[in-house]
Design brief:
ABC transporter transmembrane region fold, Rossmann fold, 2 domains, 12 strands, about 60% helix, elongated
C-alpha cells in the first residue's frame, strides 16, 4: 500500500536516500561507544593505564561529535523529504479531484475530500518521516547492539532473545485490532468537517433563524463521537508502551542478577556488564522505536487507504480514445437527444430522466419549465458532460458529445449553474474566467448585456473591487449577473442559463433577455426558469414533468394544449394580480 505513494517523493528522493545513509553512520557510532567504554573500565582503569583511558576517551568524544553531526543531518534530510512528499501528494490529490466529474465528487462528498487533502496527508507525512529515521535506525541499532552483546557474553544475551519474540507477538495483535478502529475515527473526522463546512457556508441563515444553540449541540455531538472513536482506537495502542517498558525493565533486572553472579564467579568483567547493559538498553529502545513506527503505520494506513481511494478512483467522464478536435470546432449549435435516460450514481431504479427525444436547432432560444425535481437541471447538465447519459446519446452539431475532447466541448458550451459561485479576487479576475484574453472593452460589453455594468461602476474601485470568498459582499442578483457576464465572455456556441435570473427583478430580467437576444442571435440559448415571463418569447418551450418531456411548443401552442403550462401561467398571473 505505502509503496504506491513512493513516486510522490519526486525530486525529494535524494533526501529520502541521504537520511538513512546518515542514520547508518550515526547508529554505528552510537553502538560502538559502549564497547569502548567497557574497554576503558576493564583495560584502562582496572590496570591503571591512564594513557589508554585518555586515548580511548578521546576517540569516544570524536565519535560522539560525529554522531551528533550525522544525527542533525539525518533529521534535516528526513524533514525535507517528508515535507516535499506531502506537498507532492497534496498536489497530486488536488489535481485528481480537478479531473473528477460531478458523479465522482458526489460519491465522496466535499468534507471527505477536504479531510483526505489535509488530515490524511498530514498523517502520511508524519509516518514517512518516522520511517525514514526510526525504521532504518532501529533495525541497524538492534542488529549491531545484538552482535556486540553476543560478543561480550553469549549466555547472558539469551535473556533478550526470549523477550523479543514475546513483544513481537503482542505488537502484532495490537496492530491488527487497531486498524479498523482508526478507519472509523477518520469517518468521524469527515462528519465533523461536514458540519463545520455547512455551518460556515450558511452562517447567515443560522443567525437569521437564531439557531446557534442547535448548531452548537450538533457540533458537540459530532465532536464527542470523534473523541469516543479516538479513545477506542488509542486505548488499544497505548498498551504497547507499558508492554515494552515491562519487557525492558524485566530484562535489565535479569541481566543485573545473572551478570552480578558472573562477576562474583569471575566469569565476567564489571566493564563488560556495564557495556552489556548499554547494549540491552539500545536493543529494547530500538524495539520501542519499531513499536512507535508500527503504531504510526497503523494510524496512517487508514489515511493512506483513503488517499489511494481518491488517486485510484476511475473517472467516469474523460476523453474517449479516439476523441479529437478535428471537426468539432466547426460543428454547429444544434442539439439532439436520442432516447436519453439518466440516473444519478447509476441507480436505474430511480431515474432522473426517462427516454428523452428532443431536437434543438442551432441559434434557437429554448425555454424549459417544470416543477422542482422534474429533471430540468439534469437535462441540461448532460450537454457539456457534467454527467454522462445512462442510455441513449446526445449530439451537438451532429457529433456525439462523448466524441468531443472534454475541454473543447465545455469551451463550446457555456453554462450558468443554479448556484452562482464566485471566487476570492477582483471582479475583473472573476469575469476573465470566461476568457482570460478578453479585452477591457469585451468585458464591459458582456457586463452591459448582463445588466451588471452599472452596479459594478457604483463600487468605489469599479472592476478592481475585491470580492470576498464566494462573493459574500454581493447580493444574489448581482452574483447572478456577474456569472452571466462571465459565461458570455466565452463567446460559446451554446449557452445554458439554469434559473440564473431568479434573484433579479422582472424589469432587470426583461432587460437581460433583450440584450441576450441581440447579442446571442446566432447562439443556441437554453433558459431554465420558474417564471413563464422569462421564457414566453422563446422559439420553443419544453415542459418537464417527473423526468419526462410533457410537451414542446410555443407559448401560444402550450396555452392551448398543455394543462401543466396553462396552470403554471394562470397561477403566476394571479400572483402578479
Amino acid at each position: 500500500m505505502f509503496t504506491k505513494l513512493v513516486p510522490f517523493l519526486g525530486k525529494y528522493k535524494k533526501y529520502a536516500i541521504l537520511a538513512p545513509l546518515t542514520i547508518v553512520g550515526e547508529t554505528v557510532l552510537e553502538v560502538t561507544i559502549p564497547f569502548l567504554m567497557a574497554k576503558i573500565i576493564d583495560v584502562g582503569i582496572m590496570t591503571g593505564d591512564m594513557q589508554y583511558v585518555l586515548r580511548t576517551g578521546g576517540i569516544m568524544v570524536v565519535m560522539a561529535g560525529l554522531a551528533l553531526v550525522f544525527g542533525a543531518l539525518a533529521g534535516r534530510f528526513a524533514a525535507v523529504a517528508a515535507a516535499g512528499f506531502a506537498k507532492n501528494l497534496r498536489h497530486g490529490l488536488f489535481k485528481k479531484v480537478q479531473e473528477f466529474s460531478f458523479s465522482n465528487i458526489d460519491k465522496y462528498g466535499t468534507p471527505s475530500l477536504i479531510t483526505r487533502l489535509t488530515t490524511d496527508v498530514t498523517n502520511s507525512q508524519n509516518v514517512v518521516m518516522m520511517m525514514l529515521r526510526m525504521l532504518f535506525r532501529a533495525p541497524i541499532m538492534m542488529i549491531c547492539a545484538t552482535c556486540f552483546a553476543v560478543y561480550i557474553n553469549a549466555a547472558l544475551s539469551l535473556i533478550f532473545f526470549v523477550a523479543v519474540p514475546v513483544l513481537a507477538v503482542g505488537l502484532a495483535v495490537i496492530m491488527s485490532k487497531a486498524f479498523p478502529r482508526f478507519q472509523i475515527m477518520l469517518k468521524h473526522y469527515d462528519k465533523l468537517n461536514a458540519i463545520v463546512q455547512e455551518n460556515l457556508t450558511a452562517i447567515r441563515v443560522v443567525k437569521a433563524y437564531v439557531r446557534e444553540g442547535e448548531e452548537n449541540d450538533k457540533f458537540r455531538m459530532a465532536a464527542e463521537q470523534l473523541r469516543d472513536s479516538q479513545r477506542q482506537a488509542e486505548k488499544l495502542v497505548i498498551f504497547s508502551m507499558p508492554m515494552m517498558q515491562l519487557a525492558m525493565y524485566a530484562s535489565m533486572v535479569s541481566i543485573v542478577w545473572f551478570g552480578g553472579n558472573m562477576i562474583v564467579s569471575e566469569t565476567m568483567e564489571p566493564g563488560e556488564l556495564m557495556g552489556f547493559l548499554s547494549y540491552v538498553t539500545q536493543i529494547l529502545m530500538s524495539l520501542m522505536m519499531v513499536a512507535m513506527v508500527f503504531i504510526s503505520i497503523v494510524i496512517s494506513k487508514a489515511s493512506v487507504s483513503r488517499i489511494l481511494e481518491v488517486l485510484e478512483e476511475e473517472i467516469d467522464i474523460r476523453d474517449e480514445a479516439d476523441a479529437n478536435t478535428c471537426g468539432t470546432e466547426e460543428a454547429g449549435g444544434d442539439i439532439v437527444f436520442e432516447g436519453v435516460s439518466f440516473s444519478y450514481a447509476g441507480d436505474t431504479d430511480n431515474p432522473a430522466l426517462c427516454h428523452i427525444d428532443l431536437k434543438i436547432n442551432s441559434g434557437e432560444t429554448v425555454g424549459i419549465i417544470g416543477g422542482t425535481g422534474s429533471g430540468k437541471s439534469s437535462l441540461v447538465q448532460l450537454i457539456p458532460r457534467l454527467y454522462d447519459v445512462t442510455e441513449g446519446r446526445i449530439l451537438l452539431g451532429g457529433i456525439d458529445v462523448r466524441d468531443y475532447p472534454v475541454k473543447a466541448l465545455r469551451d463550446k458550451v457555456a453554462m450558468v449553474l443554479q448556484k452562482n459561485v464566485l471566487f476570492s479576487g477582483t471582479v475583473i479576475d472573476n469575469l476573465k474566467w470566461g476568457n482570460e484574453a478578453a479585452s477591457d472593452e469585451e468585458v464591459v460589453e458582456a457586463c452591459k448585456a448582463a445588466a451588471a455594468h452599472d452596479f459594478i461602476m457604483a463600487f468605489p474601485d469599479g472592476y478592481a473591487t475585491v470580492l470576498g470568498q464566494g462573493g459574500v459582499n454581493l447580493s444574489g442578483g448581482q452574483k447572478q449577473r456577474l456569472c452571466i457576464a462571465r459565461a458570455l465572455l466565452k463567446s460559446p456556441g451554446v449557452i445554458i442559463l439554469d434559473d440564473s435570473t431568479s434573484a433579479v427583478d422582472t424589469d432587470t430580467d426583461s432587460r437581460i433577455r433583450a440584450a441576450l437576444a441581440e447579442r446571442l442571435s446566432e447562439t443556441t440559448t437554453i433558459i431554465i426558469a420558474q417564471r413563464i415571463a422569462s421564457v414566453m418569447d422563446a422559439d420553443k418551450i419544453i415542459v418537464m414533468d417527473d423526468g419526462r418531456i410533457d410537451a414542446v411548443g410555443t407559448h401560444e401552442e402550450l396555452m392551448a394544449s398543455n394543462t401543466i403550462y396553462r396552470e403554471v401561467y394562470e397561477s403566476q398571473r394571479k400572483g402578479v394580480a
